[in-house]
């Protein structure tokens, strides 16, 4: 913007009266020696002027003097007289030699006046263009400085400083002189030095051609600033554009006309140059014909002194200092005229002479102008700017037209080629890339939509799995019936799939194959699959977070509603309790008095809450007449807040008789005082004087108003109820959180036990297999059927062999000895080395390279931290990449790639759960069919469902839920099951067969489609063959049958038949499965017979949430909890309170349970001063009676040390498990047993016989350390061999010697290690 001075400025002389300088212009290819000229001239400066406030609007004077690189251009430079012939050049040389001879130095001398303002100093100096220079905001400051310097120069000495000119070098050295600086400027740039300047202007191939004028100017160093800014930077004030362009002979015509006058019209530059005599060849050829080299425009203009700086700097360095707009256009016009006239043989000297004369003439004209004559309309700026913008738009349009024409030609060629070949679709660009806009062309006439008025495209990406789209096509103007639309290809695309249709039901789908375009340079199909899985994972996490937030909000809403309801209930209860207390207190106030003159008195008589009073007591003829101490135990308001007054009385001699007194403080809110006298403080008193059980009461005379008291009392009771309720709720909440945490820990511990249960054969590193990770499978064939085989092949899949990518190809495993660097020391193994030996095994074939190291860690991953007995050298290794969409990893091993002998875990295969995946295992519909269920009491909301008929009998169906699972009870109306018992009748087989048939009929008629039918023991064994023979072909075809043997002692015939029909058979422990393997019912079916350890209900048997024990406990307070339970048990059964070992026996009294060993153990314990508690009953009356006589004998001989409870009592069983030190289970055989599991759950030490499930779950503290460690467990009890009394004595002697001296916490921790806590 223009500078607006606030005060008039006196402008004196801008330059000395006499100045000498030389200019050497160079144009095109003409040599320096040919075109250069030298002259020294004198320039008369303009007279002094008085500037007004509008001075800054005035146009600065033009000059051809270049500024020095190091100096900042200030003020106005003198306008030289430009020579026009070689004769003037000779004169310049002569004058320069004359001056140089007098100076005696090549460096110029600075004026003695010391001024450093713009006094022109002549010197021989090559001008260097700074390509990085730009016009900046310093322009305004520079203009202000110019005016101030001019004023200072006018006030100073007008004498011209001596100018020293050096000898001009010869023509042979002219080129070298242009590259180096020969003369200094003086005072670090404040003065203005004159340079010896080469001005080279060339128009070569890249300057004029198909490029727009904007591109040409840009290459010449002229930036993209708007015209106003560019002109302002070179000193254009508020002159009208009309005057500016008129300076170069351009009127008010449009910019197109103006440039047309300068031989630049609406035609292309090529046409314009053709008119100048340049042919139709390329610009390079045209300029070459004119002797102009093929340098780039930037280089050509650089030779002319125009660099990459701002417009002002570029023109200034080219010899144009702060020229007006007219000068700029004039200069451009000169260059154009030069090119045209050069071809017409006009010499450079002639052109320079003409330009010089025009400059001088213009300078004279300007000197005569009054400052007021310069006022020009501001609208001229906009006109000039619009003219330049119109020119730019015109040239851009020309370029766009050319590009459109080329694109049009390309489309026409493609359309013709594809139509001629019968291809109905093509795309532009022909190579499709991601993140690109493409245009699809469709020939309607070649398609099934030839007669349809509308054409639409419907499609998606990557096999119709990503980002569907529908767009309407538009008719093109191409030859033929071509339609098109544009699509934006997403980053994730590797293929575009689409069809065409009419918007309704008419389709063109490439003969049912659809159309597709490959997308190059993006992700491949495998990467896209990973992307989909990742997106699915994010979606699942998002949905889970949203669901969690909804549940949180719902829970918060429920909590608020419950709090509101509870608060209302508290208010109601507070009101009721207040009324009760009001009636009670009114009754006491009637009985109270201010004193009883012969028994007690209070001084003073009038007192209120908070006062200190003295209470007197006469013990004469009272219960405390002989007491050595007398205490008062008192409260207030009918003892509403318990004891609030406790003081010791002292003997008082102020009254006659045996009076005692004490000072007490009356409670603040007391309406009535309540007290008794005693012979000691609370807890130690024996004798009381309580006024014949009515206590003593005294009214508070100056108590608070009664109505106010009851309002406050009701509020106090309400707050108390709220605090108590919230404390209970907080305790319940904390307990629930702790229970959930312990369950999670137990689940995690149990899962690790499962994963390590076959560590001697196979396990993974890490133990927990996570989706998306790379794991190592370690396999020890020495313990399998592949022992000794030279090769081991690994076959793997996921999701129970149902993964959509199918099984992985067989892969040969690498023995550990081939990878000796794999040690059980936690070394990190380079994955590249492993890949060289065995590769990475993943879906889709091929294994992706793993860039991270695989840390095998400590390969001995048992829970005890003990070394694994199996050497790592026995293992083979395999790296497997686990996909994101899996929930189970499945694998087997074989001896050869094509099969041979398989290790498939006896037909069960190896399965390892996968955590963290996006896929969840679909739930299985399992139906258990059993004639008994315990505890039925856990069934909630039992109600009638429906009835159905079978075999001529109507059967009612009752429905309920146990722990969220539906349970159905069948009740035949014929009374078959209403006999008062389950077992023990002669028709048991008939009744159980009817039940099994009715259960299958119910499933069929109700439309159930179970995956598993699970029948139990001989009583429901008929389900196996009834299903296979009658129902598998009539609607229940999806089911498989599992048969579980809980006890082989009963119903062998049914068990034998069920074993033949069942798909799988199980029993309740591994040891028991081996013990019965020789049984004829089992031995022929060992291939499908498996032992699985039984379990207990952790919710029922939970010492932390057990309502039948006095103190719930966890590992943190197990000592306190078990001690309290033992004391409660002793108290309930009338046992002596003792710390001696207490043995509990909870069992059915049958021969199987080792009743003879039980009797022996009872006698042995009593002989060692222990205590015994037995809970149980016998189904055989003879055994029941025998134990009743035995109990009578023991109770009389060992009263206080033994108690038999020959009945069923579940609450008592909980107390025995918690209070006993040891639990005895001496079974002769035991498929599994639950007693020892519950005992360990409650921290009691099991003493068992080594059989069946007892052996699998109890590890002797002395003899089973290695066996326990092999399973990741710790020793947790005592066991014995044999079925004679000596074995029992061996265990009892050790448990008395060791067990009683051990802390319960230790045994409780051992029970946790088994995973049942």
Q: How do the helices and strands line up, and which of them pair or pack?
A:
Elements: E1 9-11, E2 24-27, H1 32-35, E3 49-51, H2 86-103, E4 120-121, H3 138-155, H4 174-177, E5 192-193, E6 198-201, H5 213-219, H6 227-233, H7 241-247, H8 255-261, H9 269-275, H10 283-289, H11 297-303, H12 311-317, H13 325-343, H14 348-367, H15 379-420, E7 425-428, E8 436-443, E9 456-461, E10 466-472, E11 474-475, E12 482-489, E13 495-501, E14 507-508, E15 515-518, H16 525-591, E16 600-603, E17 612-618, E18 630-636, E19 645-651, E20 659-665, E21 672-678, E22 688-689, E23 696-699, H17 706-756, E24 762-765, E25 769-770, E26 774-779, E27 793-798, E28 811-812, E29 814-815, E30 828-829, H18 831-838, E31 840-841, E32 854-855, E33 876-881, E34 888-896, E35 899-903, E36 910-915, E37 926-929, E38 940-950, E39 953-962, E40 965-972, H19 988-1006, E41 1012-1016, H20 1022-1031, E42 1040-1045, H21 1052-1061, E43 1064-1067, H22 1070-1075, E44 1089-1091, H23 1118-1133, E45 1142-1146, H24 1155-1167, E46 1171-1175, H25 1181-1197, E47 1202-1205, H26 1210-1219, E48 1222-1225, H27 1235-1241, E49 1245-1249, H28 1252-1257, H29 1265-1270, E50 1278-1280, H30 1285-1298, ...
Parallel strand pairs: 2-6, 4-5, 25-36, 31-33, 37-41, 41-42, 42-43, 43-44, 45-46, 45-48, 46-47, 48-49, 49-50
Antiparallel strand pairs: 1-3, 7-8, 8-12, 9-10, 9-13, 11-12, 13-14, 13-15, 16-17, 17-20, 18-19, 18-21, 19-20, 21-22, 21-23, 24-26, 26-33, 27-28, 27-34, 29-33, 30-32, 34-35, 34-36, 38-39, 39-40
Q: Main traits of this protein?
A:
Starch_synth_cat_dom; disordered N terminus; 34% helix; 8-stranded antiparallel sheet; alpha-1,4-glucan glucosyltransferase (ADP-glucose donor) activity; 18% strand; 50 strands; 6-stranded mixed sheet; 1317 residues; disordered C terminus; chloroplast; alpha/beta; 31 helices; plastid
């Amino acid at each position: 913007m223009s500078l607006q001075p606030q005060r008039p400025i006196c402008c004196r002389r801008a330059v000395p009266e006499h100045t000498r300088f030389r200019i050497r212009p160079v144009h095109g290819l003409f040599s320096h020696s040919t075109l250069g000229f030298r002259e020294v001239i004198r320039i008369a400066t303009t007279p002094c002027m008085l500037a007004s406030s509008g001075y800054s609007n005035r146009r600065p004077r033009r000059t051809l003097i270049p500024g020095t690189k190091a100096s900042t251009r200030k003020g106005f430079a003198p306008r030289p007289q430009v020579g026009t012939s070689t004769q003037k050049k000779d004169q310049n040389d002569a004058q320069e030699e004359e001056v140089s001879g007098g100076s005696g130095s090549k460096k110029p001398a600075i004026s003695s006046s010391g001024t450093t303002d713009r006094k022109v100093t002549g010197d021989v100096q090559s001008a260097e263009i700074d390509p990085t220079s730009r016009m900046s905001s310093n322009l305004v400051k520079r203009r202000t400085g110019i005016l101030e310097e001019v004023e200072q120069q006018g006030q100073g000495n007008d004498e011209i400083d001596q100018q020293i000119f050096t000898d001009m070098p010869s023509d042979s050295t002219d080129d070298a002189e242009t590259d180096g600086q020969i003369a200094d400027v003086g005072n670090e740039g404040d003065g203005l030095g004159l340079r010896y300047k080469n001005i080279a202007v060339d128009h070569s191939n890249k300057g004029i051609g198909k490029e727009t004028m904007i591109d040409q100017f840009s290459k010449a160093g002229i930036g993209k600033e708007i015209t106003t800014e560019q002109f302002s930077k070179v000193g254009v004030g508020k002159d009208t554009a009309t005057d500016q362009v008129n300076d170069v002979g351009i009127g008010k015509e449009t910019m197109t006309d103006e440039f047309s006058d300068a031989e630049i019209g609406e035609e292309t530059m090529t046409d314009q140059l053709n008119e100048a005599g340049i042919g139709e060849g390329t610009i390079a050829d045209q300029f070459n014909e004119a002797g102009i080299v093929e340098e780039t425009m930037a280089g050509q203009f650089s030779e002319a002194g125009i660099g990459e700086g701002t417009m002002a700097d570029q023109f200034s360095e080219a010899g144009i200092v702060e020229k007006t707009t007219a000068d700029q256009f004039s200069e451009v016009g000169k260059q154009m005229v030069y090119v045209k006239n050069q071809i017409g043989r006009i010499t450079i000297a002639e052109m320079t002479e003409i330009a010089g004369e025009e400059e001088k003439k213009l300078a004279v004209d300007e000197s005569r102008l009054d400052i007021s004559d310069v006022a020009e309309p501001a609208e001229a700026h906009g006109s000039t700017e619009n003219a330049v913008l119109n020119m730019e738009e015109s040239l851009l349009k020309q370029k766009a037209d050319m590009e459109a024409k080329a694109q049009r030609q390309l489309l026409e060629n493609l359309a013709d080629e594809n139509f001629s070949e019968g291809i109905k679709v093509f795309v532009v660009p022909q190579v499709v890339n991601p993140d690109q806009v493409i245009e699809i062309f469709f020939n309607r006439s070649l398609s099934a939509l030839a007669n349809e008025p509308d054409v639409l495209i419907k499609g998606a990406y990557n096999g119709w799995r990503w980002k569907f789209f529908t767009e309407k096509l538009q008719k093109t103007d191409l030859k033929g019936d071509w339609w098109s639309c544009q699509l934006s290809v997403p980053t994730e695309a590797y293929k575009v799939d689409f069809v065409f249709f009419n918007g309704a039901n008419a389709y063109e789908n490439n003969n049912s194959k659809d159309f597709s375009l490959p997308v190059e340079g993006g992700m491949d199909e495998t990467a896209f699959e990973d992307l989909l899985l990742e997106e699915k994972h994010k979606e699942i996490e998002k949905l889970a977070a949203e669901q969690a937030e909804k549940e949180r909000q719902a829970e918060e809403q429920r909590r608020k509603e419950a709090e509101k309801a509870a608060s209302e209930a508290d208010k109601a209860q507070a009101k009721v309790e207040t009324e009760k207390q009001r009636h009670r207190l009114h009754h006491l106030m009637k009985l109270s008095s201010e004193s009883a003159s012969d028994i007690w008195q209070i001084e003073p008589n009038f007192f209120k809450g908070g006062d200190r009073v003295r209470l007197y007591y006469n013990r004469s003829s009272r219960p405390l007449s002989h007491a050595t101490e007398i205490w008062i135990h008192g409260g207030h308001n009918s003892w509403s807040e318990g004891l609030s007054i406790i003081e010791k009385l002292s003997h008082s001699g102020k009254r006659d008789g045996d009076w005692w007194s004490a000072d007490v403080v009356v409670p603040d809110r007391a309406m009535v005082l309540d007290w008794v006298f005693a012979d000691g403080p609370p807890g130690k008193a024996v004798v009381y004087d309580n006024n014949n059980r009515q206590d003593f009461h005294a009214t508070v005379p100056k108590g608070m108003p009664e109505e106010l008291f009851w309002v406050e009392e009701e509020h106090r009771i309400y707050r108390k109820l709220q605090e108590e309720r919230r404390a209970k709720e907080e305790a319940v909440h904390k307990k629930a959180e702790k229970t959930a945490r312990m369950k999670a820990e137990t689940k995690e511990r149990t899962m690790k036990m499962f994963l390590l249960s076959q560590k001697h054969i196979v396990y993974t590193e890490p133990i927990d297999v996570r989706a998306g990770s790379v794991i190592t499978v370690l396999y020890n064939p020495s313990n399998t059927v592949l022992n000794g085989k030279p090769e081991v092949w690994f076959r793997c899949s996921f999701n129970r062999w149902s993964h959509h990518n199918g099984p992985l190809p067989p892969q040969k495993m690498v023995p550990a000895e081939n990878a000796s660097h794999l040690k059980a020391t936690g070394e990190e193994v380079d994955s590249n080395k492993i890949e060289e030996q065995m590769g990475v095994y993943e879906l889709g074939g091929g294994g992706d390279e793993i860039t991270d190291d695989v840390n095998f860690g400590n390969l001995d991953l048992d829970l005890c931290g003990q070394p694994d007995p199996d050497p790592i050298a026995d293992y083979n290794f395999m790296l497997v990449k686990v996909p994101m969409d899996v929930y189970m990893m499945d694998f087997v091993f074989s001896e050869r790639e094509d099969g041979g002998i398989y290790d498939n875990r006896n037909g069960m295969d190896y399965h390892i759960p996968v955590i963290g995946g996006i896929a969840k295992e679909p739930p299985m519909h399992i139906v258990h069919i059993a004639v008994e269920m315990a505890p039925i009491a856990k069934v909630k909301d039992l109600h009638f469902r429906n009835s159905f008929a079978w075999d001529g009998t109507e059967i009612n169906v009752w429905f309920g839920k146990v722990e969220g699972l539906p349970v159905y009870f069948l009740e035949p109306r014929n009374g078959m099951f209403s006999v008062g018992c389950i077992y023990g009748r002669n028709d048991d087989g008939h009744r159980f067969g009817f039940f099994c048939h009715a259960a299958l009929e119910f499933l069929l008629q109700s439309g159930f489609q179970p995956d598993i039918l699970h029948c139990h023991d001989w009583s429901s064994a008929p389900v196996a063959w009834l299903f296979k023979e009658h129902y598998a072909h009539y609607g229940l075809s999806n089911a498989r049958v599992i048969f579980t043997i809980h006890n082989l002692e009963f119903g062998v015939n049914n068990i034998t038949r069920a074993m033949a029909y069942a798909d799988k058979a199980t029993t309740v422990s591994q040891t028991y499965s081996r013990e019965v393997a020789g049984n004829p019912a089992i031995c022929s079916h060992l291939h499908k017979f498996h032992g699985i350890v039984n379990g207990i209900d952790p919710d029922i048997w939970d010492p932390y949430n057990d309502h039948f024990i006095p103190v719930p406990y966890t590992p943190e307070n197990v000592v306190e909890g078990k001690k309290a339970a033992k004391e409660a048990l002793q108290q309930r059964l009338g046992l002596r309170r003792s710390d001696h070992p207490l043995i509990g026996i909870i069992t059915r009294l049958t021969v199987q349970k080792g009743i003879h060993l039980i009797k022996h153990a009872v006698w042995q314990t009593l002989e060692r001063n222990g205590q015994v508690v037995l809970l149980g009953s016998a189904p055989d009356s003879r055994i029941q009676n025998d134990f009743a006589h035995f109990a009578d004998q023991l109770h009389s001989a060992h009263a206080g040390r033994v108690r038999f409870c020959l009945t069923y009592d579940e609450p008592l069983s909980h107390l025995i498990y918690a209070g006993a030190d040891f639990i005895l289970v001496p079974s002769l055989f035991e498929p599994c047993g639950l007693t020892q599991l519950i005992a360990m759950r409650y921290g009691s030490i099991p003493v068992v016989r080594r059989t069946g499930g007892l052996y699998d779950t109890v590890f002797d503290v002395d003899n089973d350390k290695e066996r326990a460690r092999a399973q990741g467990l710790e020793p947790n009890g005592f066991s014995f061999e044999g079925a004679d009394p000596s074995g029992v004595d061996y265990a009892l002697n050790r448990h008395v010697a060791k067990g009683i001296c051990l802390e319960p916490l230790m045994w409780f921790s051992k029970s946790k290690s088994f995973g049942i806590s």
